Amino acid sequence: MAGELDRERIAKYVVARRGSLGLTQEQLAERAGVTVKTIYNLEAGERWPQARTRSAIETALEWRSGDLVRVGEGLEPARQETDMTVVLRELEELNAYFADLQADSGDKRRMALAFLRALYGEPDGR
């Protein structure tokens, strides 16, 4: 099976996911309980880890079991259910930003509004 998988694609996805989690190779290795060399080899597309090691890496990347194989087959990782504590923390952070913007005299508030309009594809509104 490992010969059929696109290891370069797997490597790119692992690097991107590790980056989105804000982890170094060392931190990912520690989370997964593997050596840094194992992470390096996976990210370089040089070696395909054994099933138990793959599972530990998937868990450390907050992916579901089998996601490394799915990525290697050209598919996307399965989506994890969102942890409600993460959602609540993000909403609290947004509330803090909006409270700050309400108190702003103008420039910061206008920039945020322009960003949100661009994000949602809405006209400028001027």
CATH class of the largest domain: Mainly Alpha
Instruction: Quickly count the helices.
Output: 7
**Under CATH, the topology of the largest domain is which?**
434 Repressor (Amino-terminal Domain)
For the secondary structure, the number of strands is 0
Return the structural class: mainly alpha
User: What integer value in Å does the Rg equal?
Assistant: 20 Å
Query: Architecture of the largest domain in CATH?
Result: Orthogonal Bundle
Shape: elongated
> What is the domain total for the residues?
2
Pfam families: HTH_3 (PF01381)
InterPro entries: Cro/C1-type_HTH, Lambda_DNA-bd_dom_sf
Protein name: HTH cro/C1-type domain-containing protein
Could you describe the 3D structure shown?
63% of the residues lie in helices and 0% in strands. Helix 2 crosses helix 3 and helix 2 crosses helix 4 (51-60). By secondary structure, the protein is mainly alpha-helical. It has 7 helices and no strands. The chain has 2 domains: 2-72, lambda repressor-like DNA-binding domains (434 Repressor (Amino-terminal Domain)); 84-119, no CATH class.
Labels describing this entry:
Lambda_DNA-bd_dom_sf, 434 Repressor (Amino-terminal Domain), 63% helix, Cro/C1-type_HTH, HTH cro/C1-type domain-containing protein, mainly alpha, 2 domains, single chain, 126 residues
